[in-house]
Specification:
The longest helix is centred in the middle third of the chain and has 32 residues, at 295-326. It is built from 18 helices and 9 strands. The strands form 3 sheets. A 4-stranded mixed beta sheet has the order 1-2-7-4. A 3-stranded antiparallel beta sheet has the order 3-9-8. A two-stranded antiparallel ribbon has the order 5-6. By secondary structure, the protein is an alpha+beta fold. The model has no long low-confidence stretch (mean pLDDT 90). Bound molecules: protoporphyrin IX containing FE (HEM).
Amino acid sequence: MSTFSLFYIILCTYALLVFVLAWLKTRRGYTKLPPGPPNWPIFGNLFQLGQFPHRDLANLCRKYGPLVYLRLGSVDAITTDDPNIIREILLQQDNVFASRPWTLAAFHLAYGCGDVALAPLGPKWKRMRRICMEHLLTTRRLDSFVRHRTYEAQYLVKNIWDSAQKGEIVNLRQVLGAFSMNNVTRMLLGKQYFGVKSSGPEEAHEFMEITHELFRLLGLIYLGDYLPIWRWIDPYGCEKKMKEVEKRVDDFHMKIIEEHKIKNKNGGQKDEGEMDFVDVLLSLPGENGREHMDDVEIKALMQDMIAAATDTSAVTNEWAMVEVIKHPRVLKKVQEELDRVVGKERMVMESDLVHLNYLRCVVRETFRMHPAGPFLIPHESTRATTINGYYIPEKTRVFINTHGLGRNPKIWDNVEEFKPERHLTLDGSRVEISHGADFKILPFSAGKRKCPGAPLGVTLVLLALARLFHAFDWSPPPGLRHQDIDTVEVYGMTMPKAQPLMAIARPRLATHLY
Ligand code: HEM
């Protein structure tokens, strides 16, 4: 062999070695990414996600192990439904995983990610979150709205009682949606949108329409976030739609802020205890010594409160009603508890809720089977790290599958069975809904990004359910058996039942109480 051929072979071998090493490094060999399904060039595993991505990802966890790596177009992603790995991500490595991915929806629909819920980790998010915690969602502030919540609970019951008198079937999605929306808008904007004191059908209609469109767009898995080329084509006009909704939502928020400013200027300032959230935000100083917060910051916070608070509690309430009406045995036990704790001579009040341990189990079981956010709000890693010895690159998107967690057969028995009793404590102590050290249920998440509205969320859910089960007996519409009520869901940022729940209510308390 000539010297030239030998040199040529060594050079080629060297080049091949460099290529293979580089390939291994970016793939799973050298850097040992977590196991996962094989992926296609360019598209990665995008084709493996169907109509129910939470179920698809749970199946991958069953197949490949508790921590799974996916390549979604140009994005690294991991998913898990395992309590120990979730604890590692949300608590032990909270600093690494507490950011949010930049998505087009977050950019267009959350004021350039300038809110709390969709903002990346950083000083801006910290400041906005502090405002939420220290000025809006404090126990004192929430207590100042008890009167409004009681009014709304009574309005809910009265509304259903009227339907019952006329022999109408109740659309529970509608009445529970109005209950959540009214509570949030009263607290936030000082207005009731549905009911006798409503701010008019036109404004309510506009508000509902843009809020629904906002939820839809925020929940979308938009291919442009994973395949940059898709944004150029945007065949379904998603980005255009986002910009349209952005404009309508912004006009709406601006109108509310202007109304508040005019009222304040005309001497309508309220006492501390009477202030709604917009009043509070308008009274706070801005950044860098400025006299007031920017309007954009106020709008971003208003947006978050509406989006985070209304749908989550309404969807949870509807699922709880579905499961309880489907299981008459559970309805009977809930009502026995209510009659024992509250009696039949008055309506349930907020102060009763801590004593309703079985109802609290019902809500916890509802969160196990139907968590409001099937993937929380996706997190993102701020730098490269390892989990269980596996390499996780910087900017990895994290899908914590709370739906899979609640139905993980390694940690729950009879996962498809609605059994509230499984949550009763051995010593009879109060059943906690919003947290659990075992990480087996995570309705409000944990760590830096955990839901700051959990106490209010729990109150809205327990109060509505307690009132509805105490005041009425429930059954499915004629011709439908209890056990045949369907539990088909639709995927989104929150995951409601595909079809609204319809049911028949029969009053069970004295008429003067309604
Ligand atoms: C049943 C009702 C509710 C449920 C199930 C719920 C659940 C959640 C979940 C799962 C997250 C994401 C946590 C994460 O990504 O790790 C979240 C975030 C958030 N929630 Fe709630 N929530 C509820 C009610 C509320 C209410 C009433 C408010 C405020 C009025 C609220 C405000 C927020 C905010 C601002 C965030 C973003 C936190 C951040 O990114 O720092 N939520 N919630």
